[in-house]
Each structure stands twice: as structure tokens, then as C-alpha cells.
């Protein structure tokens, strides 16, 4: 089918009415969204809302109960196992802990996809692997085993392996979990730089709002078994929708409770006490590539707000 | 019930993948080496006392009947027909199967298998097929080792400790046993290797719930393969007696 022949500009992923449950437990239902080609999107949600399940459904590791995932002209949910292995070559996935093969060193891990899928010589492989390891800053750690390096390094090695087949779609499963704020900042910068260089479609699944506020072009929020909202970053950051507002600003006041959504009584009680939501914080500037040349999907700060007649909160885009 | 169905579907998938290229020769050799390294020593150590026990059981009885010259015959018959396959089953399930299950289970919970699928590689053909093939090969070889070591153990015990004559022991080898006994033993071992590896890989690939899940899977794999292999051993022995005419009957 030749999925690998796509021009190097990212592939659009269209999700329609996706529903998934395990036994009687519904994870989320009727999720529809489009990941625009070449753009960075973030999928946010409280812990345990099935963000990772969504990601695994996108690559066909899990089959949804209903709905479709369209990539180019193929509905991924209807593909046979063998075609699925073919279309997955479009994907690069960074798993939570890197998911490196424990029996191989870093170099062999990154070289693994090349050795399995291409007929490249060892010299060519060495060139590509060194380039990717350089990209993620792991030159010098090639001969280490995954058990001997830190979690952050494992993540970066996993990223190098995910990128080695030049994927059109890159999925990140909580790239910031278990990292300290400094490393998270470096990794976020790396993600933005990679998007500039690869022009691939990125989806980051996370619950870190700092990442969500500064990195992506688009934000989606999964809450209480459905997609609460999906759209441009500025749209969600200026939204007054209670759930979106509460989550993106990490507040206690709002519909999201400690365990699940609050019931009507406690919401009414909350309203009765007269606490008011603090004003929306300013929308920060989007993180830019480190060489300050624009990414292809980059928009002018405040563009969405101007086009849609929304007044951004005081002090935004400074 | 659904579990058995899923397992059978999985077996079909694995067996079909076995005859499809690309074949992972390197992984196969590594696995065969690995399984042999964990199973040869225990197999040999278990089979020596096995041969000795048979010699011990038979020795005094046979002497009272004055049929000492048949100790060798009985020993060969017992070791090649029964002890060989049983010891092979024990070792393949207990040492080989548990190691395979633990390895795949650990990979599963570390998301290595998902990562592999995402990289466009089917873990069944990349990991399972070489393991199943290696386990079959090693089982056949183990059965050979167990037969040789068991008979030698019986010989040593009979000749050195019970004062039997070496010539009589060796000469009576052909009295009861026959070549088809050995062949049936090897076929049994082949099937045991196949079944043990299929069960171990299936449970390993489906381990869930963190490190404890891997432990549970290994435990289940050993118990389930033991039961399956002993049942299979019975069925195959019954078939063998129906199909192959026996000496002295």
C-alpha cells in the first residue's frame, strides 16, 4: 500500500465517534476530533480518564467498541492485523517509561527498527542512529543498558527510537511524568524543535498543565468519559466553560472533584458559599523553536482571539 | 471457556507464523541455547536417580525370581518409554516454560511488546515462534539425554551396587524394548516442547497487573503445563500401544 511514500509533511488523523469500554466500565464515548497535519496537539485530562487508552486506540493496540480513526484513506479500526502492522510504520510512539528493550543497549534499541524494516548496511544504520541520538542529546550513552540510565534518559532514548523510521505521526504518552521541572522544560523544547524539523503531526497526552499551556497548537480535554472540548490553544485558554477553566488553571472550584465529578448538591453548596472563580490568568506565549525560526504550523500570538472576537485576559501574550 | 477459545486462536496464529518468513534464526539459536542451559543440568540430575530407583525396585524382586539377566531390559523399557518423556515434560515445563513465561511477562508489563507492535513488528513471529521452535528442539534433545543418563544410572546401580553382571545388563536391552519405543518417546517430547512453549508464551504475553502479574503468570504456566503434559502423555501412550505391536505379546 506504500504508506511510507507520503510526502514529509505530517498526516492528518481524524477520529470519529470513538467509544471504548472494558467490560461494563465505559472509558470514554463518542470522542470526535481532528489532529491537523503537522501541528502539535495536547490531550489533557484528570488522572484515570483513559488518556493512555485513547493513545493506544489511535495506533490500533486496542480496538474501540465503536467509531473510526481515519488516517489518509484507511479506517484504522477496521484494518486487518497485517495491514495494521503496515500502517503503524507511519507512527512513532514514545511510551511512558520509554519502553526500551531491556536486553539491548541504547544503540541497538534505536537501531532495532532499521534492522527489522530496512535493508540498510550497518554503516548507514550507524549514521542514522548517531543523528537521532544527537537530536535527543544522548551521544556517549550508546553502550549503556536501559537499566543503567535515568528515567529522563530512557525517555529520550525511547524518543530517538520512535523517530528513527521518520514517522509522520508522533504520539507522546506523558512525556513529562516522573521528570523534574528543568528536564520537563528541556523535553518540551525538544518536542517543539522536533516538530519544526520533522513537520510531523504530534499528539501529547499529559496532565501537566504547564506543558499544555505553552507547547501545543491545539488542546483537547477529556473529562468524565467524553471529550469536553478540542480546539486551538487560545480558544481553550480563554474559555469560560467551567470544566476547561478549572482544569487548565488547576483550581479546586468547579465541576471536577477529588475522586470524580462533583454531584449537583455539592456544586450547589459551593455556589451558595459565594466563592467566585478567580479571573482567568493571562495566556502565555507559545514555546518557540530554539533557533527562533517559525514552525510551519505556527500562528501569530493572539491571532485566534482577534479572528473570533475574543478578548484575551489582561496581560496575555507578553 | 472463552479463555480456551482464545488460547486455541492464539495457537493457530503462532503455528501459521511459524511457516511464514522472515524467520528469526538468530533469536532461535539464542533461545535454544538459553533453554538448554537452564534445563540440561536438572534433566540429567533428575534422570540418574530415576534409573537407579527402577533398578532398586526391580533388583531384589528379579533376583528372587532368578531373572537377573532381565534387569537391563526392564530398565531400558521403563526409562525410554516412561521416565524419558515424563522427566522431559517436568523439566521443559518447570525450567524452560517458566523462564520463557517470565521473560515475555516482564516485557509485556514494561510495554516492550506494545512498543514492538507500534514499530510494526508482530511479537508472535519475532519472539514467540523462535521460542516455540527452540523449546521443541531442546525437548527432543533432552529426551535423548534423559534416556542415556537414566539407563547409565541404572547400569551403574545394578552393576556396582547390586552385583549384577555388565554383560547381562547390556545384552538384555533388546529383550523387551524396541526402536519404536525410542521414536514414540521423541515424538512425545516434540509435542511436549510445543505445548509447554505455547502455554508459557500465551500466559506471558497476557500477563497484566505489574510485577505480581508476571509472578502469577509464571505460576499458572507451570501448573497448567504440568497438567496438560501428563494428560497428553497418557493419551499418547494409549495410542502408541494401540498402534505399535509389542514384543512378547
UniProtKB/TrEMBL annotation, chain A:
<dbReference type="Pfam" id="PF00005">
    <property type="entry name" value="ABC_tran"/>
</dbReference>
<dbReference type="InterPro" id="IPR003593">
    <property type="entry name" value="AAA+_ATPase"/>
</dbReference>
<protein>
    <submittedName>
        <fullName>Putative ribonucleotide transport ATP-binding protein mkl</fullName>
    </submittedName>
</protein>
<keyword id="KW-0813">Transport</keyword>
<dbReference type="InterPro" id="IPR003439">
    <property type="entry name" value="ABC_transporter-like_ATP-bd"/>
</dbReference>
<feature type="domain" description="ABC transporter">
    <location>
        <begin position="13"/>
        <end position="249"/>
    </location>
</feature>
<dbReference type="GO" id="GO:0016887">
    <property type="term" value="F:ATP hydrolysis activity"/>
</dbReference>
<keyword id="KW-0547">Nucleotide-binding</keyword>
<keyword id="KW-0067">ATP-binding</keyword>
<dbReference type="GO" id="GO:0005524">
    <property type="term" value="F:ATP binding"/>
</dbReference>
<dbReference type="InterPro" id="IPR027417">
    <property type="entry name" value="P-loop_NTPase"/>
</dbReference>
<dbReference type="InterPro" id="IPR017871">
    <property type="entry name" value="ABC_transporter-like_CS"/>
</dbReference>
TrEMBL record, chain B:
<feature type="transmembrane region" description="Helical">
    <location>
        <begin position="155"/>
        <end position="177"/>
    </location>
</feature>
<keyword id="KW-0812">Transmembrane</keyword>
<dbReference type="GO" id="GO:0043190">
    <property type="term" value="C:ATP-binding cassette (ABC) transporter complex"/>
</dbReference>
<feature type="transmembrane region" description="Helical">
    <location>
        <begin position="127"/>
        <end position="149"/>
    </location>
</feature>
<dbReference type="Pfam" id="PF02405">
    <property type="entry name" value="MlaE"/>
</dbReference>
<keyword id="KW-1133">Transmembrane helix</keyword>
<protein>
    <submittedName>
        <fullName>ABC transporter permease</fullName>
    </submittedName>
</protein>
<dbReference type="InterPro" id="IPR030802">
    <property type="entry name" value="Permease_MalE"/>
</dbReference>
<feature type="transmembrane region" description="Helical">
    <location>
        <begin position="32"/>
        <end position="54"/>
    </location>
</feature>
<feature type="transmembrane region" description="Helical">
    <location>
        <begin position="86"/>
        <end position="106"/>
    </location>
</feature>
<feature type="transmembrane region" description="Helical">
    <location>
        <begin position="217"/>
        <end position="241"/>
    </location>
</feature>
<feature type="transmembrane region" description="Helical">
    <location>
        <begin position="189"/>
        <end position="205"/>
    </location>
</feature>
<keyword id="KW-0472">Membrane</keyword>
<dbReference type="GO" id="GO:0005548">
    <property type="term" value="F:phospholipid transporter activity"/>
</dbReference>
Amino acid at each position: 500500500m506504500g504508506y511510507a511514500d507520503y510526502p514529509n509533511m505530517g498526516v492528518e488523523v481524524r477520529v470519529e465517534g470513538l467509544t471504548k469500554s472494558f467490560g461494563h466500565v465505559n472509558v470514554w464515548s463518542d470522542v470526535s476530533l481532528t489532529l491537523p497535519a503537522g501541528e502539535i496537539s495536547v490531550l489533557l485530562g484528570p488522572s484515570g480518564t483513559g488518556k493512555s487508552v485513547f493513545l493506544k486506540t489511535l495506533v490500533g493496540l486496542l480496538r474501540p467498541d465503536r467509531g473510526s480513526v481515519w488516517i489518509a484513506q484507511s479506517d484504522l479500526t477496521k484494518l486487518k492485523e497485517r495491514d495494521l502492522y503496515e500502517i503503524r510504520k507511519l507512527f512513532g510512539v514514545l511510551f511512558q517509561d520509554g519502553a526500551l528493550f531491556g536486553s539491548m543497549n541504547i544503540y541497538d534499541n534505536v537501531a532495532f527498527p532499521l534492522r527489522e524494516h530496512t535493508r540498510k548496511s550497518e554503516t548507514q544504520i550507524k549514521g542514522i542512529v548517531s543523528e537521532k541520538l544527537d537530536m535527543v542529546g544522548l551521544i556517549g550513552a550508546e553502550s549503556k543498558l536501559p537499566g543503567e540510565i535515568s528515567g529522563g534518559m530512557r525517555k529520550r532514548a525511547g524518543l530517538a527510537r520512535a523517530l528513527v523510521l521518520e514517522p509522520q505521526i508522533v504520539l507522546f504518552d506523558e512525556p513529562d511524568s516522573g521528570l523534574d521541572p528543568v528536564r520537563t522544560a528541556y523535553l518540551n523544547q525538544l518536542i517543539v524543535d522536533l516538530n519544526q524539523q520533522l513537520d510531523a503531526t504530534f499528539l501529547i497526552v499529559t496532565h501537566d498543565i504547564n506543558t499544555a499551556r505553552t507547547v501545543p497548537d491545539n488542546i483537547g480535554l477529556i473529562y468524565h468519559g467524553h471529550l469536553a472540548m478540542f480546539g486551538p490553544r487560545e480558544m481553550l485558554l480563554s474559555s469560560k466553560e467551567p470544566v476547561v477553566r478549572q482544569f487548565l488553571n488547576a483550581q479546586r472550584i468547579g465541576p471536577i472533584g477529588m475522586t470524580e465529578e462533583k454531584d449537583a448538591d455539592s456544586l450547589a453548596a459551593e455556589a451558595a458559599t459565594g466563592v467566585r472563580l478567580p479571573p482567568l490568568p493571562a495566556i502565555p506565549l507559545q514555546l518557540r523553536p530554539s533557533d527562533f525560526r517559525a514552525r510551519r504550523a505556527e500562528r501569530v500570538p493572539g491571532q485566534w482571539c482577534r479572528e473570533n472576537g475574543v478578548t484575551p485576559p489582561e496581560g496575555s501574550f507578553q | 471457556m472463552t479463555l480456551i477459545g482464545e488460547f486455541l486462536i492464539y495457537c493457530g496464529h503462532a503455528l501459521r507464523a511459524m511457516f511464514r518468513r522472515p524467520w528469526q534464526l538468530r533469536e532461535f539459536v539464542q533461545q535454544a541455547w538459553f533453554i538448554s542451559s537452564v534445563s540440561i543440568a536438572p534433566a540429567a540430575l533428575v534422570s540418574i536417580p530415576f534409573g537407579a530407583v527402577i533398578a532398586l525396585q526391580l533388583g531384589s524382586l528379579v533376583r528372587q525370581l532368578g531373572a537377573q539377566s532381565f534387569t537391563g531390559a526392564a530398565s531400558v523399557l521403563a526409562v525410554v518409554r516412561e521416565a524419558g518423556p515424563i522427566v522431559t515434560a517436568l523439566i521443559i515445563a518447570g525450567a524452560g516454560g517458566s523462564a520463557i513465561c517470565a521473560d515475555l511477562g516482564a516485557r509485556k508489563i514494561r510495554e516492550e511488546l506494545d512498543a514492538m507492535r507500534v514499530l510494526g513488528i508482530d511479537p508472535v513471529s519475532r519472539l514467540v515462534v523462535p521460542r516455540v521452535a527452540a523449546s521443541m528442539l531442546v525437548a527432543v534433545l533432552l529426551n535423548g539425554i534423559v534416556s542415556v543418563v537414566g539407563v547409565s544410572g541404572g547400569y551403574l546401580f545394578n552393576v556396582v551396587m547390586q552385583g549384577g553382571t555388565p554383560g547381562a545388563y547390556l545384552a538384555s536391552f533388546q529383550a523387551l524394548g524396541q526402536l519404536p519405543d525410542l521414536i514414540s518417546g521423541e515424538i512425545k517430547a516434540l509435542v511436549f516442547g510445543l505445548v509447554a512453549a505455547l502455554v508459557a508464551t500465551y500466559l506471558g504475553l497476557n500477563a497484566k497487573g505489574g510485577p505480581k502479574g508476571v509472578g502469577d503468570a509464571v505460576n499458572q504456566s507451570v501448573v497448567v503445563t504440568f497438567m496438560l503434559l501428563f494428560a497428553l502423555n497418557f493419551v499418547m501412550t494409549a495410542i502408541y500401544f494401540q498402534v505399535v505391536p509389542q514384543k512378547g505379546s
